[in-house]
# Entry
Amino acid sequence: MSLKSTIGKGYNKALSKGLFGRKIGMTQIFGLEGQRIPVTVLEVGPCPVVRVKSAAGNDGYNAIVLGYPGIKKVKNINEPEAGVFKKAGLEPMAHLREMRVSADDVAAVEVGLVLTAEAFQVGQKVDVIGTTKGRGFTGVIKRHNYHMPKASHGTHEVFRHGGSLGTRTTPGRVWPNKKMAGHYGTDRVTVQNLGVVQVDVAKNMVVVRGSVPGPNGSLVWIQEAVKGTKPQ
Amino acid sequence: MRQHLLDYVQNAHIRFDLPAFKTGDTVKVHGRIIEGEKERVQIYEGVVIRRSGSGTDASFTVRKISNGVGVERVFPVHSPRILKIDIVSSGKVRRARIYYLRALQGRAAKLRRIEDNG
# Structure
């Protein structure tokens, strides 16, 4: 990749912080008092700036577009998309995401600047967006936490059913949004206010307290917490 | 790469100063107990009946008979609350998890020491 060698320098502290990453997996570490802390290890960035949009220009608002490499065949990149990367002088990447930033940030950032895990500090709170594990077509017990029907007292041929769908002639129909079996999983989920436990810029690694949606190896987006960014 | 990062995070918390003990060993676990301001050391002595898990998740269970009642305590191997572990003796065992000890009492519950007869 023909990235400008800007890793670790030129990073503007004022920049709103968000980066692509991958979920590596969960483990546990020990805290200062010997307590066990459940943590998720994330590989975060490096993410090159692919495009800068400014309120002064044609775009009419301030934003930067970050890229993240992934598996995408060159033949599957369409012309408009290829044009974006060509203009930036970067290899095409599978993932792009736009992030609103302040006017100061737009002035400080240029296309090709590589943002890394140094965006995050230990003790900070972050939000992590991921896609939950796909569970396929799922019954109501797993999908909506229904209870199982009782197994004895005359029950027969009913094991994981949801019970009645409603009443009788009034209203004579099933209410909208009645919880039933169906597809479950692969939802976009944001987990808010995860504490940052460890940051290693050289290894592009951020360790957060708690769990993150999705299987190991899946794409995540990690950003400064929308609520409560105060360090602990 | 994936496992590599996980190992990297775990290795910072793994203790290499503890002796290599195994199932059947009688050990003294010196645990740091924090009571309010004060900190003291409590020694828990018994037979290791299992070791389980790997990395920072690793734990072991120590069984002893306290006032005629069987007591089992599970310790995380790499916990900073463990000051040190002394191996008192090594028992001769043929399996990794000696749960059968729970059903035995008195002399039958004693393991043959490895030093005694090899």
